[in-house]
Amino acid sequence: MASPPHTSKTLKLERYNSYLRRLHSTKVLNASSKLIFRVTLLIALVLILFFTLNYPPLSDKNPNHAHLHHHNFLSAALFTSSAGGDAWEKQVRHSSTPKKPNGLSVLVTGAAGFVGSHCSIALKKRGDGVLGLDNFNSYYDPSLKRARQKLLLKNQVFIVEGDLNDASLLTKLFDVVPFTHILHLAAQAGVRYAMQNPQSYVSSNIAGFVNLLEVAKAANPQPAIVWASSSSVYGLNTQVPFSELDRTDQPASLYAATKKAGEEIAHTYNHIYGLSLTGLRFFTVYGPWGRPDMAYFFFTKDILQGKPIDVYQTQDKKQVARDFTYIDDVVKGCLGALDTAEKSTGSGGKKKGPAQLRVYNLGNTSPVPVGNLVSILEGLLRTKARKHVIKMPRNGDVPYTHANVTLANRDFGYKPTTDLATGLRKFVKWYVDYYGIQTRAKKDSDINSEHPEESP
Ligand SMILES: NC(=O)c1ccc[n+]([C@@H]2O[C@H](COP(=O)([O-])OP(=O)(O)OC[C@H]3O[C@@H](n4cnc5c(N)ncnc54)[C@H](O)[C@@H]3O)[C@@H](O)[C@H]2O)c1
C-alpha cells in the first residue's frame, strides 16, 4: 500500500515540533550545567573549610603552636575547656612562681598522689613555686586524690588535670612557665595490679615518661628532673642490704620491669640530650594520706571492720619483711635530690655537654617483718587482728627489702629518723580523723596529740 501523500500542513507541523524539541533540550542543558556549577562550588567551600581548620597558617613558625594545631579536634575541645585561657594561665603562673629569691619552679607530676601531695606542700612551704599535674585516675578511690587536691589548693598549689601522654598540654605548660625542675612522681603504682591491667603500666610508666622527657628535652631552658623509680627494681636480688651497685636485671613484676625500663630510658635522654636526671628508689613508703592499696592501709581498714587479713610467708615459711619508710623522711630525700640536681646542659633539643645522671635508694635501713607491722597496728587500734597466714602467691611481690642509703646520705644528707611504731601512730591518727571513725584508738591521747591537722 502506498504511504499517505505529504501536504504543506503536515510539513509545517513537523517543523514546529522539531523546534519545540530543540528548545527543550537547550533548557535541560542549561539547568544541568547550573546544577554542576552549584555542586562544584559547594565542594570547593567544604574543602576550604576543612583545610582552614586542619592546617596552621604558613606564617606560624613556632613549632609548639604547630603541634597544638595538629592536635585532634576532640582533645582540642577538652584542652580549651580544662587548660587554656587567661584565667587558667594566671593560675598556672601564680602557682609555679617561687616566693623566695632563687627558689625553684617545680612541675610535680602525680601531685594528687600520696608522695606527690606531701612533696608539693613541703616545696611550697619553703618558698618554691609548684605546679601539679595529675590525671586523677581511679586505680584507688579518686575522692582521696580530690581531698589531697583541696589541701594543696589551700596551700596555693594548683593541680592541672591531665595525662602524662598529652604532649600538647605538657608543651603548653612549658610555654607558660620556664620550670627549673620536674619532680616526676606520676606512675601506675602497685605490684599486684600489673597482672590485672598490664597496659596501664606501659602507658604511664613507659610511654608517659618518654613523653615527658621529649617535652623536657625540647624546653628552653631544659629542666633538671628528679623521678621516682622503685626498690622493686632489685627484684630477685639476694644481696642485702640493697645497694645501688647491685644487679637490677631480674624484675619480679611488670611494675618493676617498667621502673627498670625508666632507669634505662633516663640514661638515654641524659646521654643524647644532656638532661640532668636523678632516679629515686623508694622503699615501701607509708604515712598519713597514704595509698589504700598498700598493706598497712588495708590492714588498718580490715582490722577495724573485724575482717580477716592475709599475712604472707615466704615459700620456705619465713616472715616477709619490708624496709618501711616514713613519708616525711622520703620528702626530705626528694627535696635533697632536687636541691643537689645540677642543671641540664642541652638547649634547643641538643646536648651541649655531659649532664648529671644519678640513682639513689631512699629507704629506712631497718626491715620489719609484716607480722610486727600487724602487732603494732593491733596495739594502736586496740583490736585483735584475725590473721590468716598464707604462703606468698607468685604475684610479683618479693620476700624482703632492705636499703643501703650511704650514697643519698653522702650526697644530700639523707638520714631517715622515723621508726615504724612512731610513723604508724601518725598514720592511724590521720586515718581515724579522715574517715571519721570512732574507735578506742581515737580516744587515745597519745595519738591525738601527735599529728597536726593540715599537713598531708
Ligand atoms: N609509695 C610507695 O611505697 C612507692 C614505692 C616505690 C616507688 N613508688 C613510686 O613513687 C611514685 C609516687 O607513688 P605514690 O605512692 O604517691 O602513688 P600514687 O598512686 O598515690 O600517686 C601517683 C599519682 O600519679 C597519677 N597518675 C598516674 N598515672 C598518670 C598519668 N598517666 N598522667 C598523670 N597522672 C598520673 C595518679 O592519679 C596518682 O595520683 C610513683 O612513681 C610510684 O611508682 C612509690
UniProtKB/TrEMBL annotation:
> Reaction catalysed by this chain?
UDP-alpha-D-glucuronate = UDP-alpha-D-galacturonate
Cross-referenced InterPro entries: Epimerase_deHydtase, NAD(P)-bd_dom_sf
User: According to its UniProt record, what is one Pfam family this protein matches?
Assistant: Epimerase
- Keyword Membrane attributed: yes
So where does this one cross the membrane? 35-55
Q: How does it assemble?
A: Homodimer.
- Its recorded name reads UDP-glucuronate 4-epimerase
